Amino acid sequence: MAAGLLLAGAATGPSAIAAKKKNKGSVKKEAFGKTKDGKTVEAYTLANKNGLKARIITYGAMLTEMHVPDKNGVLGDVVLGHDNLESYLDGHPYFGVTTGRVANRIAKGRFTLDGKEYTLAINDDPNHLHGGTEGIDKKVWSARVSRSKAGPAVAFSYTSPDGEEGYPGNLKMKVTYTLTNDDELRIDYLATTDKATPVNLTNHAYWNLAGKGTILDHVLHINADHYTPVDATGIPTGEILKVDD
């Protein structure tokens, strides 16, 4: 399975361009702490030639910061997150994580594939949510700085073993973050498996385009004529309804 997510940054201010016009971008690696079982977590900060920055940590292949300029060229962090690993380990609503094996809910934690029924971990009673109690968002991924003509990039990899959280198959995943010199954050997904299995990877970042304060003044427009309603537990009812004007 391969998929991509493309997020365009704000227009770059003249001052940022002048300061970085000779720079093709960079990747900086730093220690970000240790998990409760002693695994080292690292942070990778990508900076493109225009001064935009994105930080991703190996815990959950998680986007923790995204600094983009406003109309005056002043950088602001538009991604919600914590400044330290301990706050993530104490629990959080999936801030910026790579979510899976299957993002969103699976009804009652059960599915049938090739005539066999599989039972998954229940972590959003009565359903299975975002890969389970110990989904890929709670794993320490390996990281490798990736070569890209588009801009600085880092590839994160994790193999989910057969049976993890109830899913079949050994699933190898690679998530590549690229901060392009066209001021785009690209997130590309690649997954391979040795057994039929459901896969639905995504990123769970929370965005505040103002960089601070409330998002209640934000306006989101989705080009859709229909939607799929859900029941009280967040599971689609099977209906496809028309969007009211």
How far is the N terminus from the C terminus?
36 Å
Q: Characterize the overall form.
A: globular
Query: How many domains would you count in the coordinates?
Result: 1
CATH architecture classification: Distorted Sandwich
> What is the overall number of helices?
2
Order of helices and strands: EHEEEEEHEEEEEEEEEEEE
The chain-level mean pLDDT equals: 91
Structure explained in plain terms:
This is Galactose mutarotase. Keywords: Carbohydrate metabolism, Isomerase. Belongs to the aldose epimerase family. 33% of the residues are buried. Residues 1-22 have low confidence and may be disordered. A hairpin with a 4-residue loop joins strand 4 and strand 5 (62-69). The protein is mainly β. It has 2 helices and 18 strands. The protein has one domain (2-216): Distorted Sandwich (Beta-galactosidase, Chain A, domain 5), CATH 2.70.98.10.
